[in-house]
Every structure is written in C-alpha cells, then in structure tokens.
Known about the structure:
With 171 residues, this protein is of the alpha+beta class.
Amino acid sequence: MQRTILSLAFTLLTSLAFGQKYLQLERLHSTKTKKYQPGDEITFLLNNGQWYTRVIDDIHYERQFLYFANGGHVDLDSIVAFRSYTPAKWSRPLGNQMINFSAVWLLYTLVDQAVAGDGFNTGVLLTVPVTSSGLGLALKKLFKHRTYRIHRNRDGEVTKWRLRALDLTVQ
C-alpha cells in the first residue's frame, strides 16, 4: 500500500515538473558559469554602444532571443558585453577587515597615549585608521561590479566568455 502511494506520488510529481530556461554566461574551457532566468534583471551592452538594464521575461532557445518585460527583444549575438553587480568574493570581506582594523588601531592608540601620559599626538592617532578605512571603502566600491566582454575572432567564435540560451524542459 505504501509503495503504491509513493509510486503514484512520484508519477504525479514528474508529470507536473516544469522545464527551466536559463541565460548562461560561461567562460570557455572552464566550469565557471552564471545563470540568469526569467524574472532576473540584467545589464548588457549592444553593438550600438549603449548599455541597457532590462528584466528577462522569456528566453527563446531556437532563435537565441531574449524577450523582456517591456515588450522588446534582443538577439544574443548582438550583445557584446555583460555586467554583473555581484561584488568579488574577496573585496567585501577584505574591505570590512580593513575597516575593523582601523577601529581597533584607533582604540589601541587612544589607550596607549592615555596611559603613556605624553599627550595626544593626532598625527599618530589618525594616520593609520584613516588610511586603512579609506582603502577598505575603496576596495568595496571599486570591485562592486564586473564587466564581461564577449570578444569574437575573425571566424565569429567567442574567445573568452560566451552567452548561451538553455532550455531544460522535460518532455
């Protein structure tokens, strides 16, 4: 009885399974990929030199088209650059560590100068914390986004990054 209900449930679940459509940005000869699906907001550069930010409505695999929520569509071959606003994995933690270091350095310097009794020297007190926190903030801002250029050689083949439309529908 239990096996019958379990097999019936699996049969119903597989018949209700929907396919997924992805726009995949991948590096050639690597497992490094980024997947975007309908509903995601993307920023891209077309052949005309203008950046666009749109929400993906649908991905058409056979035509290699992206359809957007505002009614427009774009051929994948006309996209020459793709921008991702996810920060680099190392930039935010390193920037936060530098800011924390500046706070601890300031605290220890204040305690040291208060205990030593020589008076407060603001040059020594502020130089390292201001520099460290400034560098930490700069790291977080500079590596906030990344632009992937889709270069093609003379034969029309991509050289480093490739955009692909994937349709994983279950039939």
